[in-house]
Amino acid sequence: MLKNLDPALSADLLYALKSMGHGDTLVLADANFPSDSIARQTVLGKVIRMDNISAPRALKAILSVLPLDTPLQPSVARMEVIGKPDEIPEIQKEIQAEIDAAEGQPAPMYAIERHAFYETAKKAYCVVATGELRFYGCFILTKGVIPPRE
């Protein structure tokens, strides 16, 4: 155990988050996402598992240490619902609430069509597989920066 770190953050996940640079992306995946096959094509090359944790709980842990790129652009993508691109399922509303809480202000997500999401995910730094069972619980986060202290 380490002080001041969420216990949901494993050593493998902390390594990946620390290794990522500005603009690198992380896929936060639900239990139905092809995490292993997509992860093999990412920079890290293997899936990081958070199987017993919901997507909102996993995101809260991740955002406790990972800066988002929100000052420059929308930095979290959500997978669009097939045939209903404007629909926001409950899981996506919960994720939006976690993002807004972490950022201290509204930081809207942007949508990516399902098949385009898979292709974009292959270019990510890593894939984090959660135990989220609700459909459309897949997101892509863009890492931001931590500014120097005054």
* CATH topology descriptor: RbsD-like fold
Tell me the helix content. 25-40%
Task: Count every beta strand, where a strand is a DSSP E run of 2 or more residues.
Answer: 6
Q: Report the radius of gyration as a whole number of Å.
A: 14 Å
Structural class: alpha/beta
Shape label:
globular
- How many H/I helices? 5
Oligomer: single chain
Number of domains: 1
The percentage of residues in β strands lies in 15-25%
N/C terminus separation: 31 Å
CATH architecture: 3-Layer(aba) Sandwich
What name goes with the CATH superfamily?
RbsD-like domain
Q: What is the element string, with H for helices and E for strands? A: HEHEHEHEHEE
Low-confidence segments, given as residue ranges, are none
Indicate the mean pLDDT.
Answer: 96
**What can be said about the biggest beta sheet?**
6 strands, mixed
In which order are the strands of the major sheet placed? 2-5-1-6-3-4
Question: Can you identify the CATH class?
Answer: Alpha Beta
Keywords:
single chain, 150 residues, alpha/beta, RbsD-like fold, 6-stranded mixed sheet, globular, D-ribose pyranase activity, L-fucose mutarotase
Task: Explain what you see.
Keywords: Isomerase. It catalyses: beta-D-ribopyranose = beta-D-ribofuranose; alpha-L-fucose = beta-L-fucose. The chain is α/β, with parallel strands linked by helices and 150 residues long. The chain has one domain (11-142): RbsD-like domain (RbsD-like fold, 3-Layer(aba) Sandwich). It has 5 helices and 6 strands, in the order αβαβαβαβαββ. A 6-stranded mixed sheet has the order 2-5-1-6-3-4. Helix 4 links the parallel strand 3 and strand 4. Helix 3 packs parallel to helix 4. The model has no long low-confidence stretch (mean pLDDT 96).
